[in-house]
């Protein structure tokens, strides 16, 4: 038996006990990580260097790329190091830092995705009011609100979680420090307080998801009224991938945090964690920007 005051480290989930498979996981994660760094780095460079991309849509994409880089850099390097060096350990302070940063960046990203849905709604459904509703000051305020809400969310949940007494060992059934798995180690009924906060946060998150869906419903209705078939196809090809990625992000993260303990298993938790923590940062550059002609032209100019 141990408690949080005497605990010095946690043990993360090992991908495999076989050395060859551990190295395979390392190289696979390294490839995904480098692809995410490259994709998001190119977007940041293109938007920052090309003044033609200094618009609300690309400003939000710039913020999204920063959040994606931070999110995947919070979990992947430690997971890769553990696979490479055949260890499971992460220090107590390292685990707390990982929980805070991951919660901060993921919740800020979700808030930003909500803002981006509003941006697309105004651009397509209220184009004449776009400059008024989404001026430079309004965009900065909305982005700051997304980052600020993520910071407050992470601070609240991290402080509350690591103030709980932990006496159910120090082994986590996940490849990074995640709130639900740390709560499983609590030996006090006070964990219900944190569980209640998670449920409340999930309801707020679900409200944002409803807003996103309703925004896209209005967008699709407006797109269907476009007389040009080519115009409709272009709008749908832009909006649908966004909605698919948001749905994947929301459904997997909600299920991971709110699923009943009776259906929990290490393999299921691992798959869900990869789907909402690894896939979006690696795929978002392709979904949101690399299919975008203006981004590609800006990158081409940079490398000419």
Beta strand %: under 5%
- Overall pLDDT metric: 84
* Poorly predicted segments: none
Strand order of the largest sheet: 1-2
DSSP summary, beta strand count: 2
Report the C-alpha radius of gyration, rounded.
21 Å
Oligomer: single chain
Task: Describe the largest sheet.
Answer: 2 strands, antiparallel
Distance between the termini: 62 Å
- The count of helical stretches stands at 11
Estimated structural class: mainly alpha
Principal-axis shape equals globular
Q: State the helical fraction.
A: over 70%
Written as H for each helix and E for each strand, in order along the chain, the element string is EHHEHHHHHHHHH
Provide a descriptive summary of the structure in words.
The chain is mainly alpha-helical and 304 residues long. The chain is built from eleven helices and two strands; from the N terminus they run βααβααααααααα. It has helices at residues 19-49, 56-85, 92-125, 130-133, 136-161, 179-183, 191-224, 229-258, 266-277, 279-290, 293-302, and strands at 9-11, 89-91. Helix 3 (92-125) packs parallel to helix 7. The longest helix is centred in the middle third of the chain and has 34 residues, at 92-125. The chain is globular, with a radius of gyration of 21 Å. The model has no long low-confidence stretch (mean pLDDT 84).
Structural features:
2 strands; 75% helix; globular; 304 residues; 11 helices; single chain; two-stranded antiparallel sheet; mainly alpha
């Amino acid at each position: 038996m141990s408690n949080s005051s005497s605990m010095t480290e946690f043990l993360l989930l090992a991908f495999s006990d076989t050395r060859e498979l551990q190295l395979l996981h390392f190289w696979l994660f390294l490839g995904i990580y480098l692809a995410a760094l490259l994709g998001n780095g190119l977007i940041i460079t293109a938007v920052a260097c090309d003044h033609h991309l200094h618009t609300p849509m690309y400003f939000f994409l710039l913020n999204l790329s920063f959040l994606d880089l931070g999110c995947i850099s919070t979990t992947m390097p430690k997971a890769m190091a553990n696979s490479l060096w055949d260890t499971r350990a992460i220090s107590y302070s390292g685990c707390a830092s990982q929980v805070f940063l991951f919660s901060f960046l993921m919740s800020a990203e979700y808030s930003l995705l909500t803002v981006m849905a509003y941006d697309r709604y105004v651009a397509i459904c209220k184009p004449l009011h776009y400059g008024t509703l989404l001026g430079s000051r309004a965009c900065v305020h909305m982005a700051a609100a997304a980052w600020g809400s993520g910071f407050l969310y992470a601070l609240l949940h991290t402080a509350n979680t690591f103030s709980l007494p932990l006496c159910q060992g120090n082994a986590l059934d996940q490849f990074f420090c995640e709130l639900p798995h740390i709560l499983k180690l609590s030996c006090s009924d006070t964990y219900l307080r944190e569980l209640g906060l998670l449920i409340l946060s999930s309801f707020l998150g679900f409200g944002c998801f409803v807003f996103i869906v309703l925004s896209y419903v209005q967008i699709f209705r407006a797109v269907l009224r476009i007389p040009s078939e080519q115009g409709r196809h272009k709008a749908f090809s832009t909006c649908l991938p966004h909605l698919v990625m948001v749905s994947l992000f929301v459904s997997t993260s909600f299920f991971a945090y709110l699923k009943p303990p009776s259906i929990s298993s290490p393999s299921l938790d691992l798959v869900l964690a990869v789907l909402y923590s690894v896939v979006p940062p690696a795929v978002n550059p392709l979904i949101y920007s690399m299919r975008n002609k203006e981004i590609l032209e800006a990158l081409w100019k940079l490398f000419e």
